[in-house]
TrEMBL record:
It comes from the Bacteria. InterPro entries: CoA-transferase_III_domain, CoA-Trfase_fam_III, CoA-Trfase_III_dom3_sf, CoA-Trfase_III_dom_1_sf. PANTHER family: SUCCINATE--HYDROXYMETHYLGLUTARATE COA-TRANSFERASE. GO terms for molecular function: CoA-transferase activity. SUPFAM superfamilies: CoA-transferase family III (CaiB/BaiF) (SSF89796). This is CoA transferase. Residues 366-376 have a biased composition (Polar residues). Residues 353-376 are annotated as: Disordered. Keywords: Transferase.
Amino acid sequence: MTRSALDGLTVVDFSRVLAGPYATMLLGDLGARVIKIERPGLGDETREWAPPVDDTGTSTYFASVNRNKEGMTADLADDADRVRIWELLEQADVVVENFRTGTLDRLGFGYDEVRARNPRIVYCSITGFGAGEGATLPGFDLLVQAAGGLMSITGQSPGEPTKTGVAIVDVVTGLHAITGILAAVIARQSTGTGQRVEVNLLSSLLSGLVNQAGAFAGAGVVPRSMGNEHPSIAPYEVYPTADRSLAVAVGSDKQFRAFATALDAPELAADQRFRTNRDRVSHRAKLNPLLIARLSTRTADDWFAILTRHDVPAAPINSIGEAFELAARLGLEPIVDVDGSHQVANPIRLSETPATYRLPPPALANHSSAPNEGTS
């Protein structure tokens, strides 16, 4: 049997919805034993976020972030359940929780209490706006997209703030949580003790805004929404063709010269307004009509083939279904079968300790004295 990267690592997962469950699922894919603790009779809210449901009748939202986990229900205020939870925590390596700040402390399962019984614990807390003055603010992805500035730079114009098509702040926060957890696990190898890991959605978003946040931090520039345009690169956006839209990502002057050649318009590269990237950004309004006039003469697939031959980065705008078809054609094996549940494959490829798919999303037991291993 192939050894997994995180064999022997036990994670007690109190988290719900997306950021925490995504993080713990990826840890499970890499070999960790993950025990998901849910409220009796209620469970994770995403169990009811349907339709759609998969072939097993499970909400695809819940299934998308909860494979490779054992399931257990527990009332954290019930004496018998508390004993069972402590049995897990005293032997665990990692705890992940996203309760409202202070909730687990009041219940007696806060970081200080767990660390006192298990000094090696890595205790990850995920919040919306941190544990300080923002502790009482609700940590919903949409609200953080709004308050954190992401919606202000997404959409066709400043007057039409738009959320992203997926809860991307939760996903980025989940990835940051994994980074912190694994860093703390590595540090424990030399110190012998664990530590607290704290991540929050707002800080994760600000970090994830990269160049847009850097524009403000480094130059005091407040970015605005520009539709599909890029604030610092041109042409780097979406253009109409004879049938559907095409994304073009020209990131260098060399690529622009190749682009002009592919369009049979070499004069564009010689035009003083468009010779350098800074020139093209400054004269975007003059450049784009010229590009659209050329691109409208062929289909998106035609241009994709032509531009690819000229080493110009471009791609048609695919649906999600077409994106999966592309990944399959490229041999990326994007979908895996987990005991009858079709799931998106873990994107991390490890040559010696690859991700494994051992357990489907766990069923919600009425009451469990011990973890159950997925859905029967």
